């Protein structure tokens, strides 16, 4: 990653726990190093000298593995992940439009972070339900640190946009033209655009006793306008709110005939700002300032109040999602203090919740650039996902799966066999039943279409839809209605446990027998995500796995005691405990002088018992590599506790999403793929499965692909014991990228 300097443009107290002061200092240092200094300072070639902790002065047998010093704060670790995403906008190895995309992804990530995580902390304090995590930090202190470091991240985000990305796009003849730089022709065109497209649908609201402050929905785009003068009724209040209609594009492309070549765009904010006086005829507009309010968007469906209608309860709750409590105010950095104070008071927010913005609010809307300009040369070159040779040559996918198991890694290998398996099943007269879990897929997706066709063709189709997949609830309700209309049986899983497992079970009559064909995956049944996320798909007709999947569906669709499964690990029943057993077995092997190794690749690692088991294994001498994309509360490199643990995060072109659990097992490796992360919610409060890769060649392949990630030195961030993340720095000529290696191995490569 190339480092460039960025010039900065000028423009509730609670008692802490005993160990919090030291922990807070560490956390402030880790966030600072993971945010501001990673861009402004060169990255050292050698690991950062770790901060020495008090716990390291004790003998290993005297160390309490629940000591807060051994854990990073979950929310601050989450914020660090967002910082690493933002760093991609500085990486010159990414094409410039992809770098802009990372800025947009960062904005979207931060929105959700405030809507869910910050909102949750605020709710704890508001309702006196504060709960310290394993790190021992009080929610009020966490909020203070989040505010401090989120402000640093947002400031840097806009500096990168204004000082680096916009100039680089201008070099490529892609321009975002400020209103002060419009030519006469451009100004005239914009004026007509405002008159024809904006003015007819915009509704300014003057504030007075008869016009109360409008109820603004979550993340809507608005302006506060300062006025001078009296209107026709003699009113003289001085402020108005102008909500920008959601139907209007936030970015408008100027026609070629008013420009001098290239792609030229203006922001809706500039258009409204330039013509604000037309919204208030006869009044003087003293200032017009964009702002956006973020609200609590976490749905709270009370399990005790659902009755027999989860869908109905969810529909009711969705109506209020847009109007939760306020958590953040973003506003133009030149807005006068008295107006800012007025808005903060209106939304019951403090200065810590205020983010002054040097540019357009909601940068995620900049993704529209990709549709407005045709510049494939400024993005990653497209590729054709690979397909195993035997699958490509087979005219019947069931015959192919009957001969052998298949393991696919998306997006490097195509998702089409999963869709093909369902599509063939929908038409195949020998298929009598289909069962599937759905978490995020879309009401009109190819998967949904195949299930609808199967139901209409008389197959017994049963679908377990998780209605509470965050921010996909409305889409899942629509999907459920469509499937029910087609004649499918639709259930919503288990009320207090989200169904996150990814399973398809197809029952096919073959002669006098019924054969079960199974798909198990680490990701969602969403063809679009399969081009963006790294995930595994496993296709098999193994009898015992088929029986296990059948039993899991029995538990989901009916009511029964826990049913024993032979090969799958099943949360919330056996998955966590079996993982702990396999970790303990590696520790025992190490104590007996046998080689021992653990490799775990997940999105997040927070479950305390799992972390403590890994600490114990490290103390026993087990070599442990953790590939954790996002949140990691485990502290590596602690003498006497975790000196045998390495943690890395891979951030690259594709979103890392595979979950893999590898155990050396005294030379007989155990390899499990899973839908579950190493989090409390996944292991204890969700329906999840982990499935074994029993075929020796496939298991060896998974290990090889894990090694790609462990050898990555271009997109790999190493977690230090003080909590900072250090970007790997390759020597000249020794560049190794896991995602590039997987593209080379798997994409467009018939085998």
Automatic annotation (TrEMBL):
<dbReference type="GO" id="GO:0006799">
    <property type="term" value="P:polyphosphate biosynthetic process"/>
</dbReference>
<keyword id="KW-0808">Transferase</keyword>
<dbReference type="InterPro" id="IPR036830">
    <property type="entry name" value="PP_kinase_middle_dom_sf"/>
</dbReference>
<feature type="compositionally biased region" description="Basic and acidic residues">
    <location>
        <begin position="1"/>
        <end position="11"/>
    </location>
</feature>
<feature type="binding site">
    <location>
        <position position="470"/>
    </location>
    <ligand>
        <name>Mg(2+)</name>
    </ligand>
</feature>
<dbReference type="InterPro" id="IPR003414">
    <property type="entry name" value="PP_kinase"/>
</dbReference>
<feature type="domain" description="Polyphosphate kinase C-terminal">
    <location>
        <begin position="568"/>
        <end position="739"/>
    </location>
</feature>
<keyword id="KW-0479">Metal-binding</keyword>
<dbReference type="Pfam" id="PF13089">
    <property type="entry name" value="PP_kinase_N"/>
</dbReference>
<feature type="binding site">
    <location>
        <position position="533"/>
    </location>
    <ligand>
        <name>ATP</name>
    </ligand>
</feature>
<feature type="domain" description="Polyphosphate kinase N-terminal">
    <location>
        <begin position="71"/>
        <end position="176"/>
    </location>
</feature>
<dbReference type="InterPro" id="IPR025198">
    <property type="entry name" value="PPK_N_dom"/>
</dbReference>
<comment type="function">
    <text>Catalyzes the reversible transfer of the terminal phosphate of ATP to form a long-chain polyphosphate (polyP).</text>
</comment>
<feature type="binding site">
    <location>
        <position position="629"/>
    </location>
    <ligand>
        <name>ATP</name>
    </ligand>
</feature>
<dbReference type="InterPro" id="IPR036832">
    <property type="entry name" value="PPK_N_dom_sf"/>
</dbReference>
<feature type="domain" description="Polyphosphate kinase middle">
    <location>
        <begin position="185"/>
        <end position="367"/>
    </location>
</feature>
<dbReference type="GO" id="GO:0005524">
    <property type="term" value="F:ATP binding"/>
</dbReference>
<dbReference type="Pfam" id="PF17941">
    <property type="entry name" value="PP_kinase_C_1"/>
</dbReference>
<dbReference type="Pfam" id="PF02503">
    <property type="entry name" value="PP_kinase"/>
</dbReference>
<dbReference type="GO" id="GO:0008976">
    <property type="term" value="F:polyphosphate kinase activity"/>
</dbReference>
<feature type="binding site">
    <location>
        <position position="109"/>
    </location>
    <ligand>
        <name>ATP</name>
    </ligand>
</feature>
<feature type="active site" description="Phosphohistidine intermediate">
    <location>
        <position position="500"/>
    </location>
</feature>
<feature type="domain" description="Polyphosphate kinase C-terminal">
    <location>
        <begin position="396"/>
        <end position="561"/>
    </location>
</feature>
<dbReference type="InterPro" id="IPR041108">
    <property type="entry name" value="PP_kinase_C_1"/>
</dbReference>
<keyword id="KW-0547">Nucleotide-binding</keyword>
<keyword id="KW-0597">Phosphoprotein</keyword>
<dbReference type="GO" id="GO:0009358">
    <property type="term" value="C:polyphosphate kinase complex"/>
</dbReference>
<feature type="binding site">
    <location>
        <position position="657"/>
    </location>
    <ligand>
        <name>ATP</name>
    </ligand>
</feature>
<comment type="similarity">
    <text>Belongs to the polyphosphate kinase 1 (PPK1) family.</text>
</comment>
<feature type="binding site">
    <location>
        <position position="440"/>
    </location>
    <ligand>
        <name>Mg(2+)</name>
    </ligand>
</feature>
<feature type="compositionally biased region" description="Polar residues">
    <location>
        <begin position="12"/>
        <end position="28"/>
    </location>
</feature>
<dbReference type="Pfam" id="PF13090">
    <property type="entry name" value="PP_kinase_C"/>
</dbReference>
<feature type="region of interest" description="Disordered">
    <location>
        <begin position="1"/>
        <end position="28"/>
    </location>
</feature>
<keyword id="KW-0067">ATP-binding</keyword>
<dbReference type="InterPro" id="IPR025200">
    <property type="entry name" value="PPK_C_dom2"/>
</dbReference>
<protein>
    <recommendedName>
        <fullName>Polyphosphate kinase</fullName>
        <ecNumber>2.7.4.1</ecNumber>
    </recommendedName>
</protein>
<dbReference type="GO" id="GO:0046872">
    <property type="term" value="F:metal ion binding"/>
</dbReference>
<keyword id="KW-0418">Kinase</keyword>
<keyword id="KW-0460">Magnesium</keyword>
<dbReference type="InterPro" id="IPR024953">
    <property type="entry name" value="PP_kinase_middle"/>
</dbReference>
